[in-house]
Amino acid sequence: MRFLRRNKFTIIAIFLLIVFVFIGVQLKSIFVPDEGKASYGDRLSEIKDHKLSNDWFTKIEDKFKENDKVSKIENKIHGKIINLIITVNGDVDVNTAKEIGNSTIGMFENDELTYYSLQVYLKKDDEKLNNFPIIGYKGTTTDSLIYSKDRDIVQTEENTDEK
């Protein structure tokens, strides 16, 4: 008893500290989202049922190697979105590039297209003309790619110093 009387302020301070820590943890869990959860939430819960085959990109890359208008193709997958970045040669016009982009839809199976969204980025290495890149998007419920607005070709004027 004598110990409690001498250290009553210390015991009260320790008890209040424990209470405040408990309240702080509860407030954090209410106001701050759980960092342990995935950024996509539970939207990717069925992705195990719709896995892409190991050679799906190799198959697409082989098809584009046959096309002499395509110089390079890359892929990136983010959750339920498949991004294909296709670099076309400098002599390819906008309509031909869109046909190349549309051909990507036929390279996927129907199950893949109803689960994954597809984004196709068509770009050129030649940066003199600014009508590229063209971006096509196909959602899970649509049948074809919807492209970004066509741009007019605008060439920059060369700077000349007149002195």
Determine the strand fraction and express it as a percent band: 15-25%
Major β-sheet annotation: 5 strands, mixed
Count of the separate structural domains: 2
Number of beta strands? 5
CATH topology of the largest domain: GMP Synthetase, Chain A, domain 3
How many angstroms separate the termini?
99 Å
The CATH architecture classification of the largest domain is: 2-Layer Sandwich
Q: Helix and strand layout, with pairings?
A:
Elements (H helix, E strand, L loop, with lengths): L1 H5 L1 H24 L24 H11 L3 E9 L2 E8 L5 H10 L6 H6 L1 E8 L9 E5 L7 E2 L16
Parallel strand pairs: 2-3
Antiparallel strand pairs: 1-2, 3-4, 4-5
Characteristics:
163 residues; 5 helices; GMP Synthetase, Chain A, domain 3; alpha+beta; 34% helix
